[in-house]
Write a structure and sequence with these properties.
single chain, 298 residues, alpha+beta, Pnp Oxidase, Chain A, 7-stranded antiparallel β-sheet, two-stranded antiparallel sheet, 11 strands, 32% helix, 22% strand, elongated
Length: 298
C-alpha cells in the first residue's frame, strides 16, 4: 500500500487523499449573517452530528489551502455566534454549487444561487426554504486547529430548533431516506446521492452477544466461495445449529435430494457453500448456516 506521511506530502495532495478516503460526508449548508445584514450561504462537508442530548452538530470552516485566508462564514459566526445549518438534497445540489463560489462578502449567495431565504424562529440567520431540514443553532465554541493553509476551525453548534418538511416523514414518524434524497460529498468534484439503490439496511442488534467470527467452523472461515460480508452475516448469528435441527433439515426433500446428487465430497462442499451464499443473498442467514453444516453432518 502507498504510505502517506502528512509531514512530507504537500497539503493540497494530503487534502485530496483525506477527502477521497473519508467519504461520503454530509454537507452543512451554513447560513450566517454579517453586521451589515448581508446573508451568507456556504456549503461545508467537514460536518456531522456528535450528540443528541444536548443536540450538538459540528462543522469545520477551514483556512484556504491556496492563500491561508478564512471564509465569511467563520467571520460572521465569530461575531454573531449563530448559524442555520440546512441539509442538501439532490434537488438543490447545483444551486449549492453556485453558493460555494467565492463572491464578495457584500453579495448574498441567496441571490446568486436563486435559493429562498426565510426567517428563523430563534436566530438571526435565514433558513433555506428549498432545503428539507433546517437546524437553527447557537454556537457554543470555536476550536482553532492550526494557523497554516488547510487548518480547520471546529464550530460546535447547539441545535435550538429543527424544522423538518412533513413530506419526508414516514408512517413511523421517521425521516424516509428516499424522500429526503440527501447528497454526500466525496473527494474532488465527486458527490453521491443517498437514495434508491444506494440505500441498504444492516440490522445487527448490539445488546445481544452474537457468535463472532472466531466461533465459526474452520471450513466456513476458510471458504473460497463466501465473501467477507457473508462471513460477517454468519458471525452475527447467535448459535450454531443443533443436532436436532440438522437431523430435521436432512429429512426435507430438497436437502435430501441435494445430498444424494453428489458422490465427490470436495464438489459437494463447494456446492454447499454456493447454496449457502445464495441463501445469504436472500437474507436467509440462519438457513444458510444450517446448509453449511451439511458438509460436517452428512
Amino acid at each position: 500500500m502507498r504510505i502517506i506521511d502528512p509531514k512530507v506530502v504537500p497539503t493540497r495532495d494530503l487534502h485530496q487523499f483525506l477527502l477521497g478516503a473519508v467519504a461520503p460526508r454530509p454537507i452543512a449548508f451554513a447560513s450566517t449573517i454579517n453586521d451589515d445584514g448581508v446573508a451568507n450561504l456556504a456549503p461545508y462537508s467537514f460536518f456531522n452530528a456528535f450528540s443528541s442530548n444536548p443536540p450538538i452538530v459540528v462543522f469545520s470552516s477551514n483556512r484556504r489551502v491556496s492563500n491561508n485566508s478564512t471564509k465569511d462564514t467563520l467571520h460572521n459566526i465569530e461575531k454573531n455566534k449563530e448559524v442555520v445549518i440546512n441539509v442538501v438534497n439532490h434537488a438543490i445540489v447545483r444551486q449549492m454549487a453556485v453558493a460555494a463560489i467565492e463572491f464578495d462578502s457584500a453579495i448574498s449567495e441567496f441571490s446568486k444561487s436563486g435559493l429562498t431565504p426565510i426567517p428563523s424562529d430563534l436566530v438571526k440567520p435565514f433558513r433555506v426554504k428549498e432545503s428539507p431540514v433546517h437546524l437553527e443553532c447557537k454556537v457554543k465554541e470555536i476550536i482553532t486547529l492550526g494557523e497554516e493553509g488547510g487548518a480547520g476551525h471546529l464550530i460546535i453548534c447547539h441545535v435550538v430548533r429543527m424544522h423538518i418538511n412533513e413530506d419526508i416523514i414516514d408512517e413511523n414518524n421517521r425521516i424516509d431516506p428516499n424522500k429526503i434524497d440527501l447528497v454526500g460529498r466525496m473527494g474532488r468534484a465527486y458527490y453521491t446521492r443517498a437514495s434508491g439503490n444506494a440505500i441498504f439496511s444492516v440490522v445487527q442488534p448490539v445488546t445481544k452477544v452474537a457468535l463472532g467470527y472466531d466461533q465459526l467452523p474452520d471450513h466456513i472461515k476458510q471458504s473460497t466461495v463466501l465473501t467477507g460480508n457473508d462471513l460477517g452475516r454468519l458471525a452475527g448469528l447467535y448459535a450454531l445449529p443443533s443436532e436436532e435441527e440438522m437431523n430435521a433439515l436432512k429429512e426435507e426433500s430438497e436437502v435430501s435430494n441435494f445430498i444424494q446428487n453428489f458422490s465427490d465430497k470436495e464438489d459437494f462442499n463447494i456446492r454447499v457453500h454456493v447454496w449457502a451464499g445464495l441463501e445469504l443473498e436472500n437474507d436467509n442467514a440462519e438457513f444458510a448456516m444450517k446448509i453449511l453444516h451439511l458438509s460436517y453432518s452428512s
